[in-house]
Each structure stands twice: as structure tokens, then as C-alpha cells.
Amino acid sequence: MGRADLICLKLKAMRNLVIAIASSALIFASCQSNDEKAAAIGDAKQATIDSMNTVSVAKQQVIDSVNAEKAKHKSHSSQASSGSYSNNSSADNSTAAAPAATPAKKKGWSHTAKGAVVGAGAGAITGALINKDHLKGAAIGTVIGAGVGAGTGAIVDHAKKKKEQKAAANQ
């Protein structure tokens, strides 16, 4: 439990870091000229996407380590119940194949990253249309849209992982 709590604290700290970076970039962008604002907005978007990708990588590492521990625990419990060497060998082969299959399946962007990018684009367009100061509206809309999109994508990712874990547990 101590390790899981530590991991949760790290993920929360990373999320807070993403929010802080986006907020400081927005504040910085509001104090610059139009050309500098556009560059700062682009930098803020990229920093937000990079931070979310870092969080996704950290989450995946945590999930992989937890799955490896579960597999190790299963192999130890099957060794204790069977007591034969041949069962031990087959359990080790199944644990070695499981981590190799996970990275091969992970291709492309996560729903969180896709949601952030789509949300940022939709927010920028909406903010530019609604606000009288189009650039300021686009900046605010980008940050809000990216946050909402990333949140929605994270929910989808979580549900998908839960469904996959349930399917793996039933097999």
C-alpha cells in the first residue's frame, strides 16, 4: 500500500505541475506583444502536451510494474501449490511474455493526448470567436479546452484499461 500511495502522490504532483506550467505560460503570454503572445501560446501548448505525455509514460510504467508484481505473485503461488519444476518453468515463460506483449500493443496516441489536442483546438476556435480580443480568447480557450479534453481522454483511457484488465482476468 505504501508504494501505491507514493505512486498516486507522484501522479498528483505531475498533474499539478502541468497545471502550473499552463497557468504560468498563460500569464506570461498575456504580458507580451501579439507576435510574442502567439509564440508563447504555441510553447504553452507544446509544454502541456509534453507534460501529459510524461504523465502517460509514468502511468504506463506504474501499470507495467504492478502487472509484473502480480505475475510474480501468481508464479510463486502456483509453485507452492504444484511443487513441480515443470510448472515453475511454464509460469516463468508466461510472465516473460506478458511484459513484451504490452509495449507492442501500445501504438499511437493515448485518448488523453488526443483529447488534449482536440480540446485545445476546439477551445482556441471557440475562444477566438466569443471574446472581443481574439488572441486572448484563443489563449484562454486553448488552455481550458486542453484541460477538458485531457480529462475526458483520461476517463476513456481508464475505462478502456479497466475493461482490458477485466477481460485478462477472465481468461
Descriptive report:
- Helix content is 91%, strand content 0%.
- It has 171 residues and is mostly helical.
- It has one domain (2-74, 110-170).
- Helix 1 (2-30) runs antiparallel to helix 2, helix 1 (2-30) runs antiparallel to helix 5 (134-170) and helix 2 runs antiparallel to helix 3.
- The longest helix has 49 residues, at 34-82.
- It is elongated and about 70 Å long.
List keywords for this structure.
5 helices; mainly alpha; elongated; 171 residues
Helical proportion?
Answer: over 70%
Mean pLDDT: 76
Number of strands: 0
Distance between the termini: 27 Å
SS-based class: mainly alpha
Strand content: under 5%
Order of helices and strands: HHHHH
Please give the largest β-sheet.
none
Shape: elongated
Unreliable residue stretches: 84-101
C-alpha Rg (nearest Å) = 22 Å
- Report the total helices: 5
Total number of distinct structural domains: 1
